[in-house]
Amino acid sequence: MSDPLVEQLDSLDIAYEIIPCDPELADTAQFCKAYGYALEDSANTILVAGKADPPVFAACVVLATTRLDVNRAVKKRMGVRKASFASGADTELLTGMSIGGVTPFGLPDGLPLWVDGRVMTRDRIILGGGGRDRKVLAPPTILTALGAEVVEGLAREPS
User: Fold this and answer.
1) How far apart are CA 83 and CA 76, in angstroms?
2) What is the pLDDT of residues 27-58, one digit of tens each?
3) Residue ranges of the domains in the chain?
4) Whole-prediction pTM value?
5) Is 74 helix (H, G, I), strand (E, B) or coil?
6) Can you tell me the mean pLDDT for 6-19?
């Protein structure tokens, strides 16, 4: 049986590893603690909804140690007056993935993928694997190979 995630990862021609995980431990902090990964190497893929008619969406990848700047950086890039984190229902409807397992791989065509510049400074990152039962470990260059746009200041340090 083919695996769309593996097919897309293989097509990028960049070394990666699939890390199986207990779905109960898929949330970033729990995963890092249970499996011995540094929080600084964990990158979360977050879907943002821009208030427009029809609504606009973007996927953003940020380090787990930072906070996505939805109210300034993302809103401005989307060109909307208001933006917020997409609901779990919208995330699942648009991506086919549930929160805790969202990955930048296999997103719908035409959905912008923006990566905070800090992500690109890591030697390796751990990303969602499309489901709560696995993660992807790879160098951050896998994101630009995928076609992601690196955006400086997309996230900020927590206050």
Assistant:
1) 9
2) 999 999 999 999 999 999 999 999 989 999 99
3) 4-66+73-121+133-154
4) 0.96
5) helix
6) 95
- Residue identified by tokens 């909307």 is 80
Kindly state the tokens that stand for 17: 């590893």
Angle 152-158-159 from CA coordinates, rounded to 5° = 120
- What pLDDT, in 10s, does the model give residues 50-104? 998 999 999 999 999 999 999 999 999 999 999 999 999 999 999 999 888 899 9
**Residue 77, H or E segment:** helix 75-78
Closest CA to 159 of 74, 84, 69: 69
State in words which class domain 4-66+73-121+133-154 has: alpha beta
Residue among 18, 32, 11 nearest 103 (CA): 18
Number of helical (H) and strand (E) elements in the chain, helices listed first: 5, 10
